[in-house]
Each structure stands twice: as C-alpha cells, then as structure tokens.
Amino acid sequence: MASHSLAEKWCIHLSRIFALIFLILILFLLYYPMVIKDEGKRLLHLNGKKFTAYCKKTPAFTPKLSLLEEPETYAVNPKIFKRNIFGALWQGLPYYCAS
C-alpha cells in the first residue's frame, strides 16, 4: 500500500465527508416530500377548510415573497428591542471596523 502525504490524506478525508453530506442530502430530498404529503393529509383531516385555505396561501417547499403580508404596525417592547438591537450592532462591529 502506497504511503500518502498529509495533503493527499486530507483530500481523501474531505472527499469522503462531502460524499457523505451529498448522500444525506439525496436521502433527505427523497424522504421529506413523503413526510410533507402525509402530514398534509393528517392536517386536512384534522382542520378541513382551514387547512385548505392555509395551503392556498402557503407554499409547501419554497417561500413565495409575493404572498408576504406586512402588518401596518408592529408592537415593540422597548427593553427587548434595545437589548437585541445592541446585540445586532455589536455583531456587525468587526465588519464595520475592518473596512
């Protein structure tokens, strides 16, 4: 058996990781639509017309931005807003200072 360099070992290791990730993704894409279909049947049985109306407004797989409905106003708790806005600004600070 040939001895591999460290770079070759890393390439082999990464290719196996990516192959595993690809396999999991394929299995997920094959399995998940069946789960959605079964859940849809169950929810239709439980909720009837309400669920039918919900399905007309909500895509099953990908979001549709044209269906987005923004409220006229938002209710905001000032304490929670201040705590979270400063957290968001703090996380963006390194990007701002680097430029």
What does this protein look like?
This protein has helices at 6-47, 49-57, 78-98. The protein is flat and about 65 Å long. The protein has one domain (6-98). By secondary structure, the protein is mostly helical.
Index terms:
mainly alpha; 99 residues
Largest sheet: none
Helix content class: over 70%
- The overall average pLDDT, rounded, is 86
Number of strands: 0
What secondary-structure arrangement, pairings included, does this model have?
Layout: H1 6-47, H2 49-57, H3 78-98
Helix pairs in contact: 1-2
Give a quick rundown of the structure.
Helices cover 73% and strands 0% of the residues. It is mostly helical and 99 residues long.
